[in-house]
Amino acid sequence: MSPDEAGATRARTLALRDVTEVDRERWQNLSRRALEPNPFLDPRYLLTAHRMLDGLDDIRLVIVEDGDEWIAVTPLSALGRFAKTPLRYASTAGAYLGRRASLCVPLIDAASPQRAIAATLAHLSSRASRLPGLVELTLLPADGPVSATLRSECARVGVPVQERSRFARAFADATSPVHAPEHLSSARRKRLRRLRSGLEREVGPLEFTDHGSDMAALETLLDLEAAGWKGERRTAQRKKPAELAWFLDFIAQFGASGDFRVLTLRSAEYVIFTSLVLVIDGHAFGTMDAYDERFAAFSPGVLGRVLEQQRLMADATITTFDPCMHPRYVDATALYPDRREMVSVLLAAHGASRVLLRARPWAQRMRARFAGIRRGAR
């Protein structure tokens, strides 16, 4: 363990397999106090996956403790050589989280973010962390308080930090002046009304319902997913027994605290669209959705996602909704009124990684300059 400057906090590196019940409870308490909630780093999600699935043994938790409380958790996996360098690196985007987490912002205690991040950096900078000196933190909200505090603390203690990538994805913020579908063009809003009217002529009056943490409603969602193209390709949850067992287990744990919602668009006879949203401290995160493909001519996925937003943004307990949607889905992204910039950053915590990171911008400029010279010579 390594102490922070004041000696009031301690940091350590902990393998998932070594997490005790006391650790789990402290981790769960931190998840509820986090400066930026992240369901994909919640122990109900991550520890359950480790217990029931393969591919998580490489994850190490960098923990900061203050007495009997955890005040920071950062999951890292030691990977191979970074880019074309001889240096190994650690990343939040390891074998599992790199594929299965739509958000990787560390859990940081909202009451003491500077102290928590400073102690994390101090631990990563020491050999006691047993992690490579070059650290990649992926899928951080660029405008979030964790990113801001991380950058300020890195500057204060002299840890080089460099942005590696950035992109914008769909988002909905309750404080925004415009909500869906009002941000859409008048032509597109008219088309939505026409699609709903046509669908109602086909199946009867439609109703959109928030079922809360209802496991029976979740089963309906799983049935609908399995009945469509994902079922045919055997990628639906019901077609993967081990994944289904994990999924139902972790969702039931969220449900015990009322931390998931199933939302459904249906007629008297048909379930047209249904979605699953995880909710922590007023922040909602899209997890999965499905629609009845027999009614594809009426764009039920589009209708459902717009109604989902409307319902969530009308709820006074919800402050933001992140559908966790990749921006390559351009048409679906356009249904959301706001955007959130996501960044990945590199930290040079110790050793030769500091030389590499300081030299990297210069090397990139030189490569770009020489590439321009070669193009001009052709």
Largest sheet: 14 strands, mixed
CATH homologous superfamily name of the largest domain?
A: Gcn5-related N-acetyltransferase (GNAT)
Shape: globular
Radius of gyration: 23 Å
The number of strands is: 14
Low-confidence stretches: 1-6, 362-371
Mean pLDDT over the residues: 92
User: What percentage of the residues does DSSP assign to strands (E)?
Assistant: 25-35%
* Overall tally of domains: 2
Q: Find the structural class using helix and strand composition.
A: alpha+beta
Number of helices: 12
CATH class of the largest domain: Alpha Beta
**What is the string of SSEs from the N terminus onward?**
EEHHEEEHEHEHEHEHHHEEEHEHEH
Cα-to-Cα separation, first versus last residue = 58 Å
Can you give the helix content as a percent range? Answer: 25-40%
What is the annotated CATH architecture of the largest domain?
Answer: 3-Layer(aba) Sandwich
Stated plainly, the CATH topology of the largest domain is called Aminopeptidase
